[in-house]
Amino acid sequence: ETHRRAARCPLCLEPAEPTCLFAAHSGRDMGADLDRWIENIRKCELLPELDLKHLCEYVQELLLEESTVQPVQSPVTICGDIHGQFHDLLELFHTGGECPETSYIFMGDFVDRGYNSVETMTLLLLLKARFPHRITLLRGNHESRQITQVYGFYDECQRKYGNANPWKYCTSLFDWCPLAAIVDGRVLCVHGGLSPEVRSIDQMRLIDRKQEIPHEGSFCDLMWSDPDDIEMWAVSPRGAGWLFGSKVTTEFNQINGLELICRAHQLVQEGYKYMFSEQLVTVWSAPNYCYRCGNDACILALGDNLERDF
To answer: Which residue intervals define the domain Serine/threonine specific protein phosphatases in the entry (predicted)?
Structure first.
């Protein structure tokens, strides 16, 4: 009697279901399937749950190879918070250039608050799977199990898939996202800001990122801190992270040979805001945040010589 062996997904031990995007595919075939799924999600057609599971596992394997502080070469376009505003993400790519023609760094907070966190996360993961060296996904404070249960992503997964499994797949993947990126060794990208426990980028590289975001300490600070019109450090009204000032920023940049810290995390009405004699910039990429704030959005394009275009 002849038995036909089930196709196996290279990322799991169990035989894959016939609908698995990654089963029995490699090279051009998988690229074609990813292209098809990218087009589908752009039309708000959700991936089947099994495909999303394997997509998360596949991207997690890619993230395993990346550093806690991921080096990136210019030219590159840097994006702030998206927060589930999927149609604005599509407009972002229309404005900044489609991937892979344009290389991107997203500084976290992909999900929560907006109506389409599932679609937003799925598109970013598909682009990462398709063009792994052209898109860098940093962790933000909302890439967290605790936060996403409060601010919408968990409930959206339940509503759109009928269970919490997609939320589990994505939040497991969040644990592997880099905490920062450094462009040409001179521009640091991080979601929140600095930490009194971290004076050098080398110290940042030693942080164990493979965990839920802690409630305190250097990892927490990178996700939660904010710049303020002070010189040193102050307690943050957020209850996590710190407020940090001009002297802290100047010293950090001098010690690490940086010309700019680029961060997100705070709504900026004009879309971007320089501080500390243009040593730091906040970039915000969700226009009309929460569909009511009336703010502009911005992306920062760094050229071959790190020239800046907002």
So the answer is: 138-143
